[in-house]
Design a protein that fits this description.
single chain, 204 residues, mainly alpha, globular
């Protein structure tokens, strides 16, 4: 009996894969990321094509969010999978831009550290508390600022590449601010559940 209850709890904690239109668009974005990486690394002759694919991935991200809200196709899988693909999109772009000398190495390092914390934290919340982390306004703002900053690298002349040090200060600052806010929310949730356990409430 206890084993059956445990299995039912696990099934509730694991988001089911539903092939809705938004989830399909997210999958397409995932498949397009390696192509984008190749085009960025291929050289200046492919930069226009890389830029168009970059914009396409970003616009598709906004489109699947609109469709999910407009047609009530929001799923638990999409809530988890969509931001993971977005993180992979940004990190891949950062690493490849760094590889071709258009981005200082500190930017992908800061991004990788923050995203690693966010992924681990999200998985912990899902596993221990059955909570899916939703993007807050500060997380969305950081994403927009990063996308705009990356977009500028496609059109920034080589002789002005040094400006990338300053272009990425606003998105990195907002991203670190989001890091602190998500961390505070995690600690608040943990404290709340600890208090509930002490008062005899049901454990997550």
């Amino acid at each position: 009996m206890m084993e059956q209850v445990g299995k039912e709890a696990d099934s509730r904690m694991k988001p089911r894969i539903m092939m809705t239109v938004p989830n399909l668009l997210t999958l397409i974005r995932l498949l397009a990321i390696p192509v984008l990486a190749y085009l960025i690394y291929a050289g200046e002759s492919y930069q226009l094509l890389a830029f168009l694919l970059f914009l396409g991935i970003w616009l598709t991200d906004m489109l699947d969010g609109y469709i999910a809200r407009r047609f009530n196709q929001i799923t638990e899988f999409g809530k988890l999978f969509d931001p993971l693909v977005d993180k992979l999109f940004q990190l891949t772009t950062a690493v490849m831009m760094c590889a071709i000398g258009k981005l200082p190495v500190w930017v992908p390092l800061v991004m990788a550290g923050k995203e690693l914390f966010m992924i681990v934290g999200s998985l912990v919340l899902l596993k221990r508390f059955d909570v899916v982390v939703h993007a807050r306004w500060y997380g969305k703002l950081a994403t927009v600022l990063f996308v705009l900053a990356f977009a500028s690298l496609f059109i920034l002349p080589r002789e002005h590449i040094w400006l990338s040090h300053f272009i990425f200060i606003p998105p990195v600052f907002v991203s670190l601010f989001a890091y602190v806010c998500y961390g505070a929310n995690f600690l608040r949730l943990r404290k709340k559940n600890q208090q509930r356990d002490l008062t005899g409430g049901n454990e997550f």
